[in-house]
Amino acid sequence: MVNWPSGVVLAPFRPDDASEALRVLIDAYHDGYAGEFEGGDDWYATVSADDEWDPALVLLARDVETQRIVGVCYGWTSAFLKDVCVARVARGQGLGEALVLALAERFRERGFGAMDLKVLPGNAPARGLYRKIGFRDA
């Protein structure tokens, strides 16, 4: 079971959420741990054209009060975690963990027993999160 931080709810992705989701992705990459955000302004057009894209695997965390997107997590249909990003204003509340665990649940529902991901060696915050929830180095 996923524990969502107070004041945040899981929301489905709709194409009209793409620009706001992109804002969260770009903002999160500015911390420098994950390198440069590769999606650019055409992020949605690029990812949605990928054979492994499924909008049901795009999880959005919305602030209940403002309805703004404060977290984005999405994966490929091969049970690969592509990205998880939390807006700076919403960090430190367990939102990244909740998003990753919710995506893992989606993959389990599809019959997968594991989820893969890649993380840069210098991305200590992400590595700590993944280690905390049970990921192991391959």
Automatic annotation (TrEMBL):
InterPro entries: Acyl_CoA_acyltransferase, GNAT_dom. Keywords: Transferase. The keyword NAD does not apply. Residues 8-138 form the N-acetyltransferase domain. Gene3D superfamilies: 3.40.630.30. GO terms for molecular function: acyltransferase activity, transferring groups other than amino-acyl groups. CDD domains: NAT_SF. PANTHER family: N-ACETYLTRANSFERASE (PTHR43072). This is Acetyltransferase (GNAT) family protein. The lineage of its organism: Bacteria, Pseudomonadati, Pseudomonadota, Alphaproteobacteria, Hyphomicrobiales.
